[in-house]
Each structure stands twice: as structure tokens, then as C-alpha cells.
Amino acid sequence: MAGHADKIPPVVDGGSMREALFDPDAGRVKRNFEGLFFHVGRYFRGYFVTPHSAYLLGDYKFILEYDSKDNGGAKRWLYNLKDDIGEKNNLMASMPEKAAEMERALMKCLHAVDAEIPAPHPDYSGKNPYVPIAGDF
Question: Which of 3, 60, 65, 115 is 20 to 30 Å apart from 91, CA to CA?
């Protein structure tokens, strides 16, 4: 579409939107994984953003926060967005199999694209322990 001849590298999860944009009835974005994946692998300066990942598939959204004061360093949420658009009812306890399935799919995708998986911060206090690294702006 933009005239670039190179193919998307296999470690990048993405696909061409050309067909979907030019012929919505016939088009569907072809990707390596079903659903949508989001990953923030480290803290960000000036924001209260801890490392986390999310996976959306169908009506469900799974969120994994790698640093938390609760639950030994990690916290998980599962929502049915069709029934709970405001994300008020965490389904982790009532749907553990669905949560485990989505977490496995999330980790499979992250490993496939060689995403940095953060280890829980040993001294996490609930505040953003941002430490600048080379290349930060």
C-alpha cells in the first residue's frame, strides 16, 4: 500500500490491512496469532505504568500485571467485555480454565516474538520504580 517491498519479519506479529481497507466484504487481516496482544515490558518514566500484557480474544480480555503488591508479585484479570464493558467483574475465580487458556496463548505469542518478559521487582512497593536506561528519552 505504501510501496514497501519487504515482507513482515516472522518475529513481528502483524499483517497487511490492505485487503480489509480496499474491500471490507472480502478482506480480513491475516496474522500469526488469533486475537490482539499488547505488551509493556518495563516501567515508564512519568507514568504509573508497571510492566503488563493483555490479550483480547472474542468477548474476553485477559490482563497480566507482572509487578503487584498482591499475589506474590503478579496479578491477573479476566473480563467478559460483552457482559462487562466497564471491566468491573474479574472472572479469574469463576473461570480459571478460560484464564489459564488465555494466559498460555499470551505467553506463546510473547515468546514467539521474543518479547522481554519482566521478572517481578523484588522491592516493588506500589510506586513506579522507574530507573533510566540508555536510550530513554
Answer: 115
Q: Round to whole Å and give the CA distance between 59 and 104.
A: 17
Contact 122, 72 (CB under 8 A): no
Segment 49-57 long-range contacts (CB within 8 Å, at least 24 positions apart): 49/128, 50/124, 50/128, 51/118, 53/106, 53/110, 53/115, 54/106, 55/102, 55/103, 55/105, 55/106, 55/109, 56/81, 57/102, 57/105
Question: pTM for the whole thing?
Answer: 0.70
Domains along the chain with CATH numbers: 31-112 (3.30.1120.10)
Phi, psi values for residue 22, rounded to 5°: -90, -25
Q: Which residue has the cell 500500500?
A: 1
Tracing cell 505469542 back to the chain, one arrives at: 109
